[in-house]
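Bench notes, afternoon.
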Amino acid sequence: MSWWMYIIVVVILLLGIYAFIELVGWRTRWLNRKTGKTAESMYGNYADSKQKQRRYARDHGGQWRDDEPGPRAPVEPPEGR
């Protein structure tokens, strides 16, 4: 191998490492972005019926409360996305 091939191989390896780091950083930022969803807003989609919740609370020594959760300020998603 000629000396210039060593340089090309090193440059290609460095570009590959840089591309990998950029891809991982972009994905991390994307997965950790702020959203407008809260546990309270998603809970209704996955909750059991009120009867099942009462029965579960009674069977496990808890108590059931019929009140709604208190008012909460909505989280605004970041602008520019």
